[in-house]
């Protein structure tokens, strides 16, 4: 069973935005897409850009460094479907956003 860790409060991430956080030594990017929360590794697989600082359009985040796009639901690249960044399971309990880092 995954161990979910509180990483943020839901009001900290407005709809249509992302936020970079560090928890247990891992850089995570949290996204709010139409009120549902998703978490990816914060490091773009292309050149290491911070995905949490990228522009969010529906379920797509665009890396601010070189424009690579990623699906926040599953971490899949829109440019090359064989490349992914790690997607983490997310749950929300009240205001608490929790991510399974295992």
Quick structural gist:
The chain is mainly β and about 100 residues long. The chain contains no helices and 10 strands. The strands form 3 sheets. The protein has a 4-stranded antiparallel sheet with strand order 2-3-4-8, with no helix packed on it. A 3-stranded antiparallel sheet has the order 1-10-9, with no helix packed on it.
Describe what this molecule looks like in 3D:
The chain is an all-beta fold and 102 residues long. The protein has one domain: Rieske Iron-sulfur Protein (3-layer Sandwich). The chain has no helices and ten strands. The chain has strands at residues 4-9, 18-23, 26-33, 36-41, 55-57, 60-62, 69-71, 87-88, 90-93, 96-100. A four-stranded antiparallel beta sheet has the order 2-3-4-8, with no helix packed on it.
Write the layout of secondary structure elements.
Blueprint: E1 4-9, E2 18-23, E3 26-33, E4 36-41, E5 55-57, E6 60-62, E7 69-71, E8 87-88, E9 90-93, E10 96-100
Antiparallel strand pairs: 1-10, 2-3, 3-4, 4-8, 5-6, 6-7, 9-10
Q: What attributes does this structure have?
A:
single chain; 102 residues; mainly beta; Rieske Iron-sulfur Protein; four-stranded antiparallel sheet; three-stranded antiparallel sheet; globular
CATH homologous group name: Rieske [2Fe-2S] iron-sulphur domain
| Structural domains: how many | 1
Q: Give me the strand/helix succession.
A: EEEEEEEEEE
The assigned structural class equals mainly beta
**CATH topological fold name:** Rieske Iron-sulfur Protein
Separation of termini?
9 Å
């Amino acid at each position: 069973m995954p161990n979910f860790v509180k990483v943020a409060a839901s009001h900290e991430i407005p709809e249509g935005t992302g936020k970079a956080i560090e928890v247990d030594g891992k850089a995570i990017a949290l996204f709010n897409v139409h009120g549902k929360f998703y978490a990816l590794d914060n490091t773009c697989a292309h050149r290491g850009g911070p995905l949490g600082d990228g522009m969010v359009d529906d379920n797509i985040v665009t890396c601010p460094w070189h424009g690579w796009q990623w699906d926040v639901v599953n971490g899949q690249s829109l440019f090359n479907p064989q490349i992914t960044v790690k997607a983490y399971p997310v749950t929300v309990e009240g205001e608490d956003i929790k991510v399974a880092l295992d």
